[in-house]
Design goal:
alpha+beta, 22 strands, 423 residues, 13-stranded mixed β-sheet
């Protein structure tokens, strides 16, 4: 065992009181987090000392300590005792009072309660915290979760996401109100065709598309993948009918970036998925996408639009959407996995099953309510929520307002309805 690994293993054993355990297996993993930071993780499986002949590879015995450690920050990302059973000989908390749990988190993570995180839920030995800035919500949200058993031993710990610090914060007052955002808010009102499972029919509704607005009135889209280096392509794919077309056969795929050295892990070498996609690669990807569509969907020339390209797990991913379906919730979508050497499509995922789910639904009703009328109807139900949003251009959290609403307007009769009633 490399001495650097041995040091982390010993550090883990001491930290969590694993004298009654032995290290069963360990592995290194590499990933990009939501903030495009390269994370190398040492994953360890510790077996209780009295279990010496375990041969089942499908699951671990109760009491196993499954631990993930960030190699570079030495911050533990998760500690899970299988089956809620711990043989640790270390008492982590002075008591199970919430204040003592918080003090332990502050000591373990270096975070400050009330400034960087807050308690969201406490129930039956489970504590759930979220990132915040002085009590104001943060997006994307970081979480901390702790579970303890009846005798006070910790059986679960997880730390996920980014927690703001003074260095990553743009300190400014919140100066927005809905009256100043009239046109911006109205622009977020969209007409969509929504499938209502309870009624087996498709209903036209006006909904507010969530968005973040800065103090200067510029906007940040509400997108779970905002941090990914996605190239916007917006290219319609067409081809001429032909009696011959490229062949396609699905290839089994899996992560390709798992082969790296211990030296790379300890030096925190940047993840290869951070490499930008060149113009030449874009051209070759488009050719590969066209060959794939021509083979698998030969009658669909002009039907598909390449929205974006990005790298993921050693592949180039192409996201495609069907043209002229902006109002449909379940648009035709394709996710293509492209080989970075041959630029051929190896495999794909579609959402055909979602579309098939609503094929028997009663079709859309007549639309009799225009956007102006719908906006006046829903205006009083629109919220502007103050929060901090991570700006990937500045690499900092900035003060924003989130425009949102839990209601919609039926475009056929003008009725305002809670969105939850359609779920």
């Amino acid at each position: 065992m490399d001495k650097r690994v041995k040091e982390l293993v010993d550090f883990t054993s001491e930290k969590w009181g694993l004298e009654n355990y032995y290290l069963h297996t360990y592995n290194f993993y590499r990933k990009l987090n939501s903030f495009n930071e390269t994370i190398y993780t040492l994953t360890m499986e510790w077996f209780p000392s009295h279990i010496t002949d375990w041969v089942n590879e499908d699951y671990n015995p109760d009491g196993t300590a499954s631990i993930d450690l960030n190699v570079n920050s030495r911050q533990f990302e998760s500690v899970i005792f299988v089956g809620g059973k711990s043989y640790s000989n270390k008492n982590l908390f002075h008591s199970l009072k919430t204040n003592d749990i918080i003090k332990w988190i502050e000591k373990e993570t270096g975070l400050k309660y009330g400034c960087q995180f807050e308690l969201k839920k406490e129930e039956d030995g489970e504590f759930y915290f979220q990132s915040s800035i002085g009590g104001i919500a943060v997006s994307p949200c970081g979480t901390i979760e702790i579970k303890v058993d009846q005798v006070g031993k910790m059986t679960f710990f997880s730390l996920y996401g980014k927690f703001p610090s003074k260095e990553t914060l743009v300190d400014e007052n919140f100066s927005l109100n809905l009256d100043d955002l009239g046109q911006i808010v109205k622009d977020q009102l969209e007409l969509i065709e929504y499938p209502v499972n309870k009624q087996n029919r498709i209903i036209p509704i006006y909904v507010i598309e969530e968005i973040f607005v800065r103090n200067d009135l510029s906007v940040i889209p509400f997108d779970f993948d905002r941090g990914k280096f996605k190239l916007k392509i917006k290219e319609n794919i067409q081809w001429q009918p032909s009696n011959t077309r490229p062949s396609f056969k699905r290839t089994l795929i899996g992560p390709l970036n798992e082969d790296f050295s211990i030296d790379q892990a300890f030096s925190c070498e940047p993840h290869p998925d951070l490499l930008l996609i060149s113009d030449d690669e874009i051209t070759k990807c488009i050719i590969g996408v066209r060959d794939f569509l021509c083979s698998v969907f030969p009658k669909d020339s002009g039907k598909w639009l390449v929205e974006t390209l990005h790298r993921d797990e050693g592949y180039i991913i192409a996201i495609l959407k069907e043209n002229d379906q902006e109002r449909q919730v379940f648009q035709g979508k394709l996710k293509l996995f492209i080989d970075t050497t041959t630029f051929m499509v190896l495999n794909y995922i579609d959402n055909k099953f979602k579309i098939e789910m609503i094929e028997g639904f009663q079709q859309i009703e007549n639309i009799s309510i225009n956007k102006d009328t719908a906006f006046e109807t829903i205006k009083s139900k629109i919220e502007l929520i103050s929060l901090y949003v991570f700006d990937f251009e500045q690499n900092k959290f900035i003060r924003c307002g989130k425009i949102d609403s839990d209601f919609c307007v039926n475009a056929s009769n003008g009725e305002i309805i809670a969105l939850a009633d359609y779920l």
